[in-house]
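Structure request: DUF4124 domain-containing protein, Pseudoalteromonas luteoviolacea DSM 6061.
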Amino acid sequence: MKYSSYLMIMIMLIGLGSLFVIKRPDGKPWLSVDMIFGEAQQQASTLLDKSKQELNNVVDSAKKVLNDEETATSQTTIYKWQDAKGNWHYSDRPNTRVNSQVHTLDPTKITIMAAENTEILEKLGQEKGQADGKIDVDNMKPTDVKKLVKDAQNLQKLMDERAKTLEDI
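Returned structure:
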């Protein structure tokens, strides 16, 4: 039994080897190493070319998206107008009732700063016995509301002064 399986394997190997030796009518062997590796190399080359083409398409698409984003961010436009009370408003759309001033923003020149003065919130939190500065709206007294409104007005004045300073710059 053991020898018969070896014999079968040897016959198959001899048959496969004979394809490299026996010639076709045109004089070339039925099978050659160049035929096997040449076809594999051709398929690999075709696959590589397709991969390069797809990669170039993806890179071009990514560049286009990035250029579109840069164009969109570099051309950000905001509109500014003043209401009857003298308050300035900013929006991404112009106000149709009032003449809006058009401003184009350059994202590279925008600086975001943290609030400098948060004493109002800290004082209010300390008065209420809260360390985090949060306001308990449900338990407010009328005097607390008046103080809160006054603090908000002071904060509005401060913000208006800063806005004016920024406009002057």
